[in-house]
Write a structure and sequence with these properties.
heterodimer, A: 115 residues, mainly beta, B: 115 residues, four-stranded antiparallel sheet, globular
Chain lengths: 115, 115
């Protein structure tokens, strides 16, 4: 089944403890992206990658890191999480490299709570 | 900067009736793409419908259709014969060639379908 997977689905952690949220897609998509969802704000892009080894900042990159060493994986790293990073996180992927825009398919989401 | 506005935080409709969700956007670009995503209680983001700005014909997908008014920068979603399974948060989203694949989301409209 074609899908985007994320792990973990739920995570409760404490301030300053490094964590990684994994994202993997099995559709051979070029483009991958991370969003965070907060009430009243919709979804906002954190980072994106148009291809392997190519990543760039979205609208809210502060406090996050990403890497794209393989086409299928795009992990999101929080080096020193803070309570304002408590949110619902989505990974997404699309066939095209962003130009022209292609429909993005989303993972199931990761609910992160930072105490 | 591009913005997307959904002015109805919550709506409700009786089962089998028709409901329209509003979305307006602001852009100076002429080539862009608009989407409606559905987020049920499972939190999964599901693509409902996609509209390319260069197409004059309004997109339809079964019971879902859009009213795309390019001059007015309006992109409303009509759900016909509403079903209990349509209960969800609905997000309007915009992207274009200049966004690097980024989706710009509205704040969302929480739709409740009542039996």
């Amino acid at each position: 089944e074609a899908q985007v997977t994320q792990n973990p689905r739920y995570l409760i952690t404490v301030t300053g403890k490094k964590l990684t949220v994994t994202c993997s897609q099995n559709m051979n998509h070029e483009y991958m992206s991370w969003y965070r969802q907060d009430p009243g704000l919709g979804l906002r892009q954190i980072y994106y990658s148009m291809n392997v080894e190519v990543t760039d900042k979205g609208d809210v990159p502060e406090g996050y890191k990403v890497s794209r060493k393989e086409k299928r994986n795009f992990p999101l790293i929080l080096e020193s999480p803070s309570p304002n990073q408590t949110s619902l996180y989505f990974c997404a992927s699309s066939q095209g490299g962003g130009i022209p825009p292609d429909t993005q398919y989303f993972g199931p989401g990761t609910r992160l709570t930072v105490l | 900067a591009q913005t997307v506005t959904q002015s109805q935080p919550e709506m409700s409709v009786q089962e089998a009736e028709t409901v329209t969700l509003s979305c307006t956007y602001d852009t100076s670009e002429s080539n862009y793409y608009l989407f409606w995503y559905k987020q049920p209680p499972s939190r999964q983001m599901i693509l409902v419908i996609r509209q390319e700005a260069y197409k004059q014909q309004n997109a339809t997908e079964n019971r879902f259709s859009v009213n795309f008014q390019k001059a007015a920068k309006s992109f409303s979603l009509k759900i016909s014969d509403s079903q209990l399974g349509d209960t969800a948060m609905y997000f309007c989203a915009f992207t274009s060639y200049n966004q690097g694949g980024k989706l710009i989301f509205g704040q969302g409209t929480e739709l409740s379908v009542k039996p």
